[in-house]
């Protein structure tokens, strides 16, 4: 089968199309013929060496496709089932092995590109508004990179919970997409001379006391402005570092900021059990089927072009979700 391999840590150019042996399912596992593999920021962290990976490394952890073989002991997943997954290592490939109890059935009415798009980013948006800080009606929240994969979904889910959402974006086209997702106010943070001083002012022009929660996946460049945008007892949910990782900081800043909270959550802890994985996925699929949640696939690439997808993502050129069309 064909797969993408990173032979060593490096830039997008290390991603190479190779032939690998077709996998066999072990006990409790299934083999899925991949229709779409999702591209995520974390794939770039592993490719570049920011996060540890063993090389040669086949990137990707999520996707959607059709089960083509089941291993011993698998009873509730069958050949021909349409499934999606979020923790199937090596998903940039024509076939992937996934533990049967980590597959999510894709319901009728949800296409496989949408299902792939909803796994890592959708489940993340879900736990952020549902668990990291349960967003309530009448709250004000700030979402960075509002036209990104997580950002567009997070905005819609927070609005559905009755919140007023302020977002940041870097282009006018992204601003328009963010407004369409339900943002009340959109700040062009690329146009601010002093982000740390001016972004909190822009936020307070909309929410005078500051926001109840900031969802920050940008990290290094936005962290200080995020803290300064909170109201007393507000929470900064730092969930990523698209601009770089946040350096260590002095806990006393939480005291002087007004009894603030900071959390650094990760998806794995929020879908660790099968019931929690299925609950979150079911709620997302249900919202899609109702038309209440729009999933924007902003870029579809051939498997061989995975490096170009990484380059565009890291260059801030993308909106919504990027997928690799593997088997279609
Ligand atoms: P996005 O589609 O949001 O792409 C990243 C966006 O970040 C860019 O489009 C850009 O938007 C913004 N950005 C700001 N500064 C930079 C920079 N220096 N370089 C690159 N991008 C920058 O990506 P995802 O939706 O896939 O992921 C968003 C964040 O969420 C990432 O940090 C990712 O690691 C994190 N994440 C965390 C998870 C968790 O459980 N903790 C799970 C899933 C994702 P703009 O041009 O508008 O500034």
Automatic annotation (TrEMBL):
<dbReference type="GO" id="GO:0070402">
    <property type="term" value="F:NADPH binding"/>
</dbReference>
<dbReference type="InterPro" id="IPR013154">
    <property type="entry name" value="ADH-like_N"/>
</dbReference>
<protein>
    <submittedName>
        <fullName>NADPH2:quinone reductase</fullName>
    </submittedName>
</protein>
<dbReference type="GO" id="GO:0005829">
    <property type="term" value="C:cytosol"/>
</dbReference>
<dbReference type="Pfam" id="PF08240">
    <property type="entry name" value="ADH_N"/>
</dbReference>
<dbReference type="InterPro" id="IPR011032">
    <property type="entry name" value="GroES-like_sf"/>
</dbReference>
<dbReference type="InterPro" id="IPR036291">
    <property type="entry name" value="NAD(P)-bd_dom_sf"/>
</dbReference>
<keyword id="KW-0521">NADP</keyword>
<dbReference type="InterPro" id="IPR047618">
    <property type="entry name" value="QOR-like"/>
</dbReference>
<feature type="domain" description="Enoyl reductase (ER)">
    <location>
        <begin position="10"/>
        <end position="324"/>
    </location>
</feature>
<dbReference type="InterPro" id="IPR020843">
    <property type="entry name" value="ER"/>
</dbReference>
<keyword id="KW-0560">Oxidoreductase</keyword>
<dbReference type="GO" id="GO:0035925">
    <property type="term" value="F:mRNA 3'-UTR AU-rich region binding"/>
</dbReference>
<dbReference type="GO" id="GO:0003960">
    <property type="term" value="F:quinone reductase (NADPH) activity"/>
</dbReference>
<dbReference type="Pfam" id="PF00107">
    <property type="entry name" value="ADH_zinc_N"/>
</dbReference>
<dbReference type="InterPro" id="IPR013149">
    <property type="entry name" value="ADH-like_C"/>
</dbReference>
């Amino acid at each position: 089968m064909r797969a993408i391999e990173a032979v060593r840590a490096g830039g997008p150019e290390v991603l190479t199309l190779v032939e690998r042996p077709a996998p066999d399912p072990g006990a409790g596992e299934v083999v899925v013929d991949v229709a779409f593999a999702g591209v995520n920021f974390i794939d770039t962290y592993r490719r570049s060496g920011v996060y540890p990976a063993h090389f040669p490394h086949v990137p990707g952890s999520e996707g959607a496709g059709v089960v083509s073989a089941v291993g011993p002991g698998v009873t509730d997943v069958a050949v021909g089932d349409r499934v999606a997954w979020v923790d199937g290592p090596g998903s940039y490939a024509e076939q992937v092995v996934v533990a049967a109890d980590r597959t999510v059935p894709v319901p009728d009415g949800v296409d496989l590109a949408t299902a792939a798009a909803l796994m890592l980013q959708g489940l993340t948006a879900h736990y952020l508004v549902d668990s990291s800080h349960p967003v309530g009606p009448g709250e004000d929240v700030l979402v960075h990179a509002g036209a990104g994969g997580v950002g567009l979904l997070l905005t819609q889910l927070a609005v559905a919970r009755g919140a007023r959402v302020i977002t940041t974006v870097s282009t006018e086209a992204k601003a328009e997409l963010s407004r369409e997702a339900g943002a009340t106010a959109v700040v062009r943070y690329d146009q601010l001379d002093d982000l740390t001083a001016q972004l909190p002012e822009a936020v307070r022009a909309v929410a005078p006391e500051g926001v109840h929660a900031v969802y920050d996946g940008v990290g290094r460049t936005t962290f200080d402005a995020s803290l300064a945008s909170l109201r007393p007892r507000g929470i900064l949910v730092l969930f990523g570092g698209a601009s770089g990782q946040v350096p260590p900081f002095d806990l006393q800043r939480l005291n002087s900021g007004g009894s603030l909270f900071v959390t650094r959550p990760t998806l794995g802890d929020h879908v660790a059990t099968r019931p929690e994985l299925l609950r979150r996925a079911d709620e997302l699929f249900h919202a899609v089927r109702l038309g209440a949640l729009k999933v924007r696939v902003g870029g579809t690439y051939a498997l061989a072009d995975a490096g170009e997808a990484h380059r565009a993502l890291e260059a801030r050129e993308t909106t919504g979700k990027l997928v690799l069309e593997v088997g279609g």
